[in-house]
Amino acid sequence: MKNDGVVKTSTSGINTTPSRITIKVLAEILKKKDSLFELGNVLPQLTRQRGWEEKLDLHSIFLRWQELLDSDITDHCRPVKIVKKILWVEVENSAWLQQLQFQTVLLLEILNKSLRISTLGGLRFCLEEREKDEKKNGPSLRYVQPPAKDVAAFERQVESISDKDVRESLVRFWYLSQACRRE
Length: 183
Description:
Elements (H helix, E strand, L loop, with lengths): L22 H9 L7 H12 L2 H16 L2 H4 L2 E7 L2 E6 L2 H9 L1 H11 L7 E6 L1 H9 L3 E3 L4 H10 L6 H16 E3 L1
Parallel strand pairs: 2-3
Antiparallel strand pairs: 1-2, 4-5
């Protein structure tokens, strides 16, 4: 069905087109003195009209994550997204990922009991991006300050370079090559 820019309005004055409702429309509704609507009544009605109730119920898990599950679990993982009623949980490391996979049925039961009108279809676990990046990029670097006598010795070696910028760049390069160590 093509929307030709015409705004269809119900008898209650609420925009019923599938496009986004704007603050302007809400303000117009609230300005009417004879309107039965108050902001507290408009938002629940809007969520029902748009079919958002189930999504809001599902996403309430994000806000209540800490209180729904033990701190032993929540300290090592966090909910990331919900796609097709599947909750994706980002896990700190592979050991916790495996542990949570063993507890999937129990976790799903706890989370579904907390929902009012919807249910999760499953849980999927993934590693935190940090761990993926470390594996992909290899070992991380750590900073180890070179001994002062080595720095002074290298500075003496490059004193003969007449261009000050080149000399300072060479010292910085040498310093970084000595200070950065792979773990």
